[in-house]
Amino acid sequence: MTQTAHIALYDTLADSEIGHLLVELRTGRFIGTPWNVVTVAETADPVTTMGGMRIVPDMVLADLTPESSDLLVLAGAEMWDAGGGQAWTDAARRFLDAKVPVAAICGATAGLARAGLLDDRDHTSAALEYVTMQPGYGGRDRYVDARAVVGGDVVTAGPDSPVQFARATMGRLGLASEETLQAYEAVFHAADASAYPVLMRAA
Q1: Smallest Cα–Cα separation from 202: which of 27, 56, 22?
Q2: Average pLDDT of the residues in 190-198
Q3: Does residue 198 form part of some domain?
Q4: Where is the DJ-1/PfpI domain (predicted)?
Q5: Closest by alpha carbon to 45, among 2, 9, 69?
Q6: pLDDT score for 194
Q7: DSSP state at residue 67
């Protein structure tokens, strides 16, 4: 059965933060098998991303269940820094209760912090100061100063680490060997051409 990633959509979603991950899941070019990539929004109305793309969601959040999914992806957006996003953190809680992974980057980590979903899990964000400003956050002792962190079923990353976010998420899902993941980051982050043949073997 083809696995499915559900991508949260909301206005000003930061396209650049999740693009690498979506390409790898959708094409399966280095992981062997393509995934279904399904977009989800709170309503059926089109959403305009930070990059200006207008996207019509595939489904609405009210119809999303963890049992129908293998991954929930939460990107940054202006709403997170405005204190919004509770509908999505509620969804994330349902996913985590069902042991379905959640991958959050940039502002979405602030939303998870406010919801208390990072308190007992290793995690990262844009900076420690960023998450400690969030009301309800109690996870300072679990903060890791790294580009991307896997803490059980939660993957987190800062806004400057879309490649590491993709790598960490693929690793958490068991989609590629460590050799392939290292080569992926070397090629797409460090522009290390010597790692390219490893990716071609995976492809």
Answers
A1: 27
A2: 96
A3: no
A4: 6-170
A5: 9
A6: 96
A7: G
What does the pLDDT average to over 13-18? Answer: 97
| pLDDT reading at 43 higher than 90 | yes
Task: Name the residue among 128, 134, 169 with its Cα closest to residue 148.
Answer: 169
Instruction: Write out the residue range of the structural domain in which residue 125 sits.
Output: 4-175
Best CA proximity match to 75, nearest among 66, 65, 88: 88
Distances (CA, A) of 120 to 93, 110, 143, 154, 158: 13, 15, 10, 11, 19
Residue 200 lies in a domain: no
SS (H, E, C) 112-156: HHHCCCCCCCCECCCCHHHHHCCCCCCCHHHECCCCEEEECCEEE
Residue 203 confidence class, pLDDT cut points 50, 70, 90: confident
- Whether residue 54 is contained in a domain is answered as yes
Query: How many Cα atoms are found within 13 Å in the side-chain-facing hemisphere of 96?
Result: 22
| Cα(174)–Cα(170) distance, integer angstroms | 6
- By the 8 A CB rule, do 69 and 6 touch? yes
52-64, pLDDT tens digit by residue? 999 999 999 999 9
- Give me the CATH number covering residue 46: 3.40.50.880
In a domain, 191, yes or no: no
Is residue 1 over pLDDT 90? no
The chain-wide mean pLDDT, for the chain, equals: 97
Residues 6+ apart with CB under 8 A from 113: 125, 131, 134, 136, 137, 139
For residue 57, which of 124, 8, 94 has the smallest C-alpha distance?
Answer: 8
- Quote the tokens at residue 15: 């396209």
